[in-house]
Amino acid sequence: ATEEQMYRPNFHYTPKKGWMNDPNGMFYADGQYHLYYQYYPDGNKWGPMHWGHTTSKDMIKWEEQPIAIYPDKDKYIFSGSAVADINNTSGLGTGKTVPIVAIYTLHDMTKEKENKIDVEQQDLAYSNDNGFTWQKFEEGNPVVKNPGIRDFRDPKVTWDKTHKQWVMVLAAQDRAQFYKSTNLKNWEYLSDFGKNIGAHGGVWECPDFFQIKVEGSNETKWVLIQSLNPGGANGGSGTQYFIGDFDGTTFKQDVNFAQRVEKEKAVWLDYGKDNYAGVTWDNIPSTDGRKLFIGWMSNWDYAQQVPTFAWRGSMTIAREIQLIKKGNEYSLVSNPVKEINKYISKTIKEKSLKGKEKISIVTSEKIDLTKAIVNFDLKNLKQDTYTFTLSNTAGESLTFGINNSDHYLFLDRTKSGKTDFSEKFASTITKAILDGNQEEAVFKIILDKTSIEIFYNNGEKVITEIFFSNQPFTELSVSSNQGIELNDIVINQLNIN
Ligand code: FRU
After folding, report:
1. What is the reported pLDDT for 429?
2. Is residue 79 in contact with ligand 1, taking CB distance under 6 Å?
3. Which of 77, 81, 143, 461 would give a disulfide with 156, using CB separation of 3.0 to 4.6 Å?
4. Number of alpha carbons in the 13 Å side-chain half-sphere of residue 486
């Protein structure tokens, strides 16, 4: 089989050719979700960064567009964001359509080679055709100068409707910095957050900062999503988050959430190794109101070695992020966007499966496990380990499940096929610690040719990872020593092309 047949995802976004990392500049306008990304079209490793571009009507089926923003010689276009400037606060609009304003990091390779500090600054570009073609704001760039910090990048801009201002968050080495503006062109420093708070195993990158409603109430909170590399939950790149309040100048963690951060060292948006630099979409209509997120489904530990060559890098499934409150505890949950359900072409349902030791749940005769959503509810858990296994006839397997003696979820790709392209790819088993003994465990799992995304208990814990089996997995089974009770099994075939 060709690499295209074996490893091109069925429904996760990949560029036709070349290298891709972080998602950038996502916004919605005129019926389309726009997604830009860190892109090097001429090679399959990281290189001179462009903003690649793709669009979708539903965040599931993507149509690649011409490259949106090109670097100038040695001046790479790094990560950043875009907003719909509805009131033309920037004055960059021409009146026909809402101007789209992108602010990104301009990274100067010449200065980097000279070991200078002021390598990174924030530049602006704008579009007057809903994001298809862009103009660099030559006369006004940079809009944020480098203040003498080497790692100073990845601006994410949002309209703060409470304080009627644009707010920018950016990553400044070991902290997030906040700026404000009335016109997107002049920015004033406000405050910073995060030095000595949360995970600091590596440089902070790609933050996101937004206000969000607590599910089922009118209360709102502010969320800071903060990627870092290395130092992620299970090694390498990872994304943590913080919940609190913003008074227009300063972000302060909620007291209970701060205690949780202290106790757990960091609270993670995803415990898997392959969800990095993710941020949310701008300009989602208020009639919709969702917070929509996508991440880069890879990890700097091995991203440049994964065994695809024509293209490298894919995105996670687009997700809805919600803020829930239990007692006084706030947390984020993530789930696949509902639009994916449109592509269900066949459903197998089973009320319950009971048995001892090993039970087969489904085989490829019934469902193609390279494009499927699998749901089930494990009931009456004992102090035992429940292991789900995806396997093929080549003897390869990907296992995941719940250890209810030591209280964690796990995902093990050590025997999943090609792993030796990097020492770091499968050197450890991924774990997500659970609060304590679980009586029941609800799983939603999204399977593609080279990825698994596990949404546990309605997205309270998420594990996203990639794998490269030499043959497709053809069976899903479950085993445990003390017997299994699996309820509400719903297996959906997806048909997306
Ligand atoms: C994160 C990152 C960003 C940077 C971009 C460069 O993966 O390192 O901080 O802007 O990638 O491609």
Report:
1. 98
2. yes
3. 81
4. 29
Amino acid present at 343: Y
Residue nearest to atom 6 of ligand 1 (CA): 78
Q: Which residue do the tokens 């880069």 mark? A: 296
Cα of 208 from ligand 1 centre, angstroms: 14
Going by the DSSP 8-state scheme, the letter that residue 470 receives in this structure is S
Type of residue found at 136: K
- Record the pTM: 0.98
Q: Which of 22, 123, 368, 448 is catalytic?
A: 22
In angstroms, what is the span from residue 435 Cα to ligand 1's centroid?
33
Residue 21 beta carbon below 6 angstroms from any ligand 1 atom: yes
For 99-138, give the DSSP string: -EEEEEEEEEHHHHHTT-S--EEEEEEEESSTTSS-EE-T
Q: Is 368 one of the annotated active-site residues of the chain?
A: no
Q: For ligand 1, what atom is nearest to the CA of residue 79?
A: 10
Residues 6+ apart with CB under 8 A from 262: none
Q: Whose CA is nearest to atom 8 of ligand 1?
A: 205
pLDDT by residue (tens digit) across 38-89? 999 999 999 999 999 999 999 999 999 999 999 999 999 999 999 999 999 9
334, 319 in Cβ contact below 8 A? yes
Contacts of 456 (CB under 8 A, 6+ apart): 409, 432, 441, 442, 443, 462, 463
Tokens 């979708």 map to which residue? 56
d(CA 270, CA 96): 41
Cα–Cα–Cα angle for 208, 209, 211, rounded to 5 degrees: 140
Question: Identity (one letter) of the amino acid at 255?
Answer: V
Centre a 10 Å sphere on the Cβ of residue 440 and count the other Cβ atoms it contains: 12
Atom of ligand 1 nearest to the CA of 151: 9
Strand order through the sheet with 188-193: 152-160, 165-172, 176-181, 188-193
What average pLDDT does the segment 296-314 reach?
98
Q: What order do you get walking across the sheet with 18-29 strand by strand? A: 62-69, 50-56, 32-40, 18-29, 311-312
Of 322, 324, 273, 278, give the one whose Cα is nearest residue 300. Answer: 273
Q: Is the preceding omega at residue 23 within 30 degrees of 0, hence cis? A: no
Q: For the chain, which domains are there? A: 3-336 (2.115.10.20), 342-494 (2.60.120.560)
* Per-chain mean pLDDT for the chain: 98
Band of the pLDDT at 357, cuts 50, 70, 90? confident
User: With contact defined as beta carbons under 8 Å apart, do 239 and 268 qualify?
Assistant: yes
Cβ atoms 283, 291 nearer than 8 A: no
Tell whether the model's pLDDT for residue 411 goes beyond 90: yes
Sort strands 18-29 and 311-312 into parallel, antiparallel or unpaired.
Answer: parallel
Residue whose structure tokens are 């396997």: 391
- 339 Cα: distance to centroid of ligand 1 (angstroms): 29
Using CA atoms, how far residue 79 sits from 1, 185, 378, 417, in Å, is: 35, 18, 41, 32
Q: What's the pLDDT score for residue 95? A: 84
Ligand 1 atom having least distance to the Cα of 107:
10
